[in-house]
Specification:
The chain has helices at 45-51, 82-88, 103-113, 119-132, 136-139, 152-164, 182-195, 208-214, 232-237, 242-248, and strands spanning 5-16, 19-30, 34-38, 62-70, 73-74, 89-92, 170-174, 200-204, 217-222, 225-231. The chain is an alpha/beta fold and 253 residues long. It has a single domain, classed as Rossmann fold. Strands 6-7-8-3-9-10 form a 6-stranded mixed beta sheet, with helices on both faces. A 4-stranded antiparallel beta sheet has the order 2-1-4-5, with helices on one face. The radius of gyration is 18 Å and the shape is globular.
């Protein structure tokens, strides 16, 4: 079975200085599935997400123990290049963060840094990534214009396209719709459904309805601990743990 897991965390503990943000988290993330991480603010969901592609390395004074296994290796082993990990495990943030460049240059920036040089290759990659992010039809005639003029929802899809242009295996999404209106949110949710055919997606969301709509599996976190991890339908209808039930029915949190 384990060859079907793209990432596995094994007894992961994470500290910001002396504060323990995650305690003994073990999870298996299945290939071509969407896993949602839910729980109240400050419970460790985003910390775990950033741990999966070593984004937390960029914060001083943090430490991690336990293992994050990706393709059979612990990504925290000393011989692993975090930049390579971030290329293969892409990330989309809460607020759209396009570069102050043209739409086209936003997409090809990463691939160019990684040695894709041919004009035709870059154009094909830009088109393919924008098609995948369901943005191509809206921007194909304005690729030379600044990404900053796009709407918030378009900018977020551009950021998804930018991540896809790096040809990742996994896409991490940290509350990708929390800054967006309902129509843009619905577009991103539809997009997640399509993208999981080709990618493994892990999404942090504070919106339980969203988790129920888009994910195959859901992990419920509370105070840095993984309380329950189950297929989404089971977790939302017949949770194993009373605390999960109290959270999803709004009795606490």
């Amino acid at each position: 079975m384990s060859n079907n897991f793209v990432i596995q965390t094994k007894n992961v503990n994470f500290y910001y200085g002396t504060f323990q943000a995650l305690t003994d988290v073990s999870m298996d993330f299945e290939k071509n599935k969407v896993t949602a991480l839910i729980g109240p603010s400050g419970c460790g969901k985003s910390t775990l997400l950033r741990l999966l592609n070593r984004m937390n390395d960029l914060i001083g004074g943090t430490s991690v123990d336990g293992k994050v296994i990706y393709e059979g290796k612990n990504i925290y082993d000393p011989d692993i290049d975090p930049v390579d990990i971030r290329r293969r495990i892409g990330m989309v943030f809460q607020k759209p963060n396009p570069f102050p460049k043209s739409i086209f240059n936003n997409i090809i920036y990463g691939p160019k840094l990684n040695g894709v040089r041919g004009k035709a290759d870059l154009e094909a990659l830009a088109e393919q990534s924008l098609v995948q992010a369901s943005l191509w039809d809206e921007v194909k005639d304005i690729l030379g214009q600044s990404a900053m003029m796009l709407s918030g929802g378009q900018q977020q899809r551009l950021c998804i396209a930018r991540a896809l242009a790096m040809k990742p295996d996994v896409l991490l999404m940290d509350e990708p719709t929390s800054a967006l209106d309902p129509i843009s949110t619905a577009k991103i949710e539809e997009l997640i459904e399509v993208l999981k055919r080709d990618y493994t997606i892990i999404i942090v969301t504070h919106n339980m309805q969203q988790a129920a709509r888009v994910s195959d599996y859901t992990g419920f976190f509370y105070l840095g601990k993984l309380i329950e991890f189950n297929p989404t339908e089971k977790l939302f209808t017949k949770p194993d743990i009373k605390q999960t039930e109290d959270y999803i029915t709004g009795r606490f949190g």
